[in-house]
Amino acid sequence: MQCSLNDTALSSILPPVLIAEFILGTLGNGFALWIFCFHLRPWRSSTVLLFSLVVADCLLLVALPFRVSYYHNGFEWRFGNTFCTICHFLVASNRAGSVVFLIAIALDRYVRVLHPHHPLNFLSVSKAACGAAVLWLGTVSLSLFVTLNKTNSGYCGSFSHQSSRNYNVSPHRLGFLLGFYASFLVILFSTVCIVKHLRKRQIARHAEVKKAQSVMIAIVVLFAVCFLPSNITQLVIWFKARDAADAVRFCAEMQQLTVVYYVAVSLTYLNSALDPVVYYFSSSEFRRPFFSTSQSFLMGLRSGLCENEPPT
């Protein structure tokens, strides 16, 4: 039995949310790219990981306007099957890449704080770039597998909005869910270990140490806000589909849950707007040009407003 979803509510809710995320993500990551390319000299191994996260965000920003059109037109894709596959690949690459490189940044902080003399802390930029390339290879391979195994061609989304009582859990969906929860546990473990270590040594008030804690907390919050809601909702949908007995009640519940799921998925796109917070806390080289550029912009804005004021 198929339960059709009333697309009207989602078609009015999702486009404004995605447009806001696109604007914030474009401004934040455009500014971050400008700093990484023209102000961060020399790069360090940790800079390579941060730059990879910017690249992952840019993949999403390319696809996001087309997702807005898709939702605005009532889940009707008007750009052809090939471009649907490309957009689906970009979104999947962003999600997988964001998770992978946020974990890499968290583990980098973990090693730097708890094991300051570990060889990983002295990696050259070229070796860090090779490591990032390996991570990207795995990310792209996983995204291609997910994209090419998408069997429903009647829509252009990662989740069918016609929910069935015989809904089957595909291997790649299950693998992504398990990978997400394992990643979240790794980040929580790293954060707890860093905080406990710093408190034990009573150096948590040191400025650089506080920034290291801020990075970990920012990553945990980003994971919880952007990725946790959709993964929890996906699990609830699976369990409901397996245990459904009454068809009418099942369809009513699935309509509500699917709306919640799509709203939760829209939160995953928010990571492109929130990732610049991670850049800010992760790199003092990033903060310096951020402050100088912000001050120059505000001074220019203030002088422009003063010039436009009528004489008294």
UniProtKB/TrEMBL annotation:
Gene3D superfamilies: Rhodopsin 7-helix transmembrane proteins. Keywords: G-protein coupled receptor, Membrane, Receptor, Transducer, Transmembrane, Transmembrane helix. Residues 28-279 form the G-protein coupled receptors family 1 profile domain. GO terms for cellular component: plasma membrane. It is a multi-pass membrane protein. It is found in: Membrane. InterPro entries: GPCR_Rhodpsn, GPCR_Rhodpsn_7TM, HCARs. The chain crosses the membrane at residues 13-36, 48-68, 80-107, 128-148, 174-195, 215-239, 259-281. GO terms for molecular function: G protein-coupled receptor activity. Pfam families: 7tm_1 (PF00001). It comes from the Eukaryota. Belongs to the G-protein coupled receptor 1 family. This is G-protein coupled receptors family 1 profile domain-containing protein. It comes from Neogobius melanostomus. The lineage of its organism: Eukaryota, Metazoa, Chordata, Craniata, Vertebrata.
